[in-house]
């Protein structure tokens, strides 16, 4: 089920050839960072040069408190800023929450919805995730919709059915491809150093692609970018992005340092 960063069968493939969609690398800082840490964003901006910018999109999602500052710091760098969550409603009596419209107002262009840590910590269900994705669409943001099976579900042979259910129940029916990104993040791979085999990633991404075409229509479904996430590091990124239907990567811990994040994004050069 897991491996330590080697895909011998894939080394002959050109990473950038695995997808015809424009690659996307998203960094998720989770509940980490500070004003000082925004220096890493500035360094990322310096490393995200014209050659790389012409090839890929780069999005960084800092904690909510730092989204506005990050959006200011990112001006002119080519890096887009996203948030890690939003409320489904536009406004109202929801103490402590932030709407997708508010995120757009402070310069965010993307928002993550349905991350497994929110599904666990806040008991978010597929219907909640769908409502948040609709909110992102309404506010003109790109939704990075995360899904993936737990360790127990994979061991019970249910990984594919769980992912299919999450996709079916959380993707809004009329979502345009440019506003939707799917992040396949097996829960057991997040922050553990464990990564699925290339074959497993390929199987799940192919399934997601097929279902997206059925849900959104063939053309839109083929244009939605599908990212892999879970223990992505500079040491395994090239092999992961060589897998068919992997349109990019969703990076947690390794996005905190500009050097690591740029090394990962730099495989698309
Ligand atoms: P890690 O890269 O730290 O495993 O986190 C993955 C993740 O949850 C990104 O959303």
Structure commentary:
With 269 residues, the protein is α/β, with parallel strands linked by helices. It has one domain (18-259): Aldolase class I (TIM Barrel), CATH 3.20.20. It has 12 helices and 10 strands. β4 (79-83), α4 (100-105) and β5 form a beta-alpha-beta unit. Residues 1-18 have low confidence and may be disordered. The protein binds 1,3-dihydroxyacetonephosphate.
Distance between the termini: 30 Å
Structural category is alpha/beta
Record the strand order, biggest sheet. Answer: 2-3-4-5-6-7-9-10
Structure annotation, total helices: 12
How many separate structural domains?
1
CATH class: Alpha Beta
Poorly predicted runs of 5 or more residues = 1-18
Any idea what the CATH architecture is?
Alpha-Beta Barrel
Largest sheet: 8 strands, parallel, barrel
